[in-house]
Amino acid sequence: MKIKILIAALILFSSFAIKAQSVKEVNYEQFKPYLNNPSDTVYVINFWATWCKPCIEELPHFMTVAQDMRHKPVKFIFVSLDFPKYKESKLIPFIKENVINEEVLLLNDPNSNFWINDINKEWSGAIPATIIYRKNQRSFFEGQVSYEELTENIEGKL
C-alpha cells in the first residue's frame, strides 16, 4: 500500500515539474491572441527576463497573487524576453527552481520596435512590464508592481 501511495505521489509531483519546465517559444504574431481574449477571465501578462533584477524581485508577488486567486477566473502568463539560446540553460532551470507553475512563453521576435508599440504605445520597452485585462478593461504597468497593486487591479476587473 505504501508503495502505491509513493508511486502516486511521484507521478503527481513529476507532472507539476513537467508543467513548470514547459516553455512555448512564440513570435509576436503567435503571441498576439493572448492580448485580446474576450472571455470573462482576467488576464495578467507579465513581461520579464531572468537577467532583470526588478523582474525577479517582483516575481514572488505574482506567485502569491496567483495562488491567492487560484479559484477565481484569473490567468497569469509570464512572457520571457530572455535570449532564445538560453532557454535550456537558464530559463527552464530558473522556472523549475522558482516553481513557476503558470504558463510561460518565450517571446522570440526581433522586431521589438513594432511589437512594443503595438502592445502599448506608452511602453518604452523597459521590463518588468505588466498588462492586466478583462474584455475592454485594461491596465498597463511599466516597472515593478506590488502585491497590493496586483490584487486591487485584478479584483477591480472581476
From TrEMBL:
Signal peptide positions (record): 1-20
Gene3D superfamilies: Glutaredoxin
Keyword check for Signal: yes
Pfam families: AhpC-TSA
Residue ranges annotated for the Thioredoxin domain, each copy included: 7-158
Keyword Signal: yes
Organism: Plebeiibacterium sediminum
Superkingdom per UniProt: Bacteria
Record's protein name: TlpA family protein disulfide reductase
InterPro entries named in the record: AhpC/TSA, Thioredoxin-like_sf, Thioredoxin_domain, Thioredoxin_ResA/DsbE_sf
Keywords, comma-separated and alphabetical: Signal
GO terms for MF: antioxidant activity; oxidoreductase activity
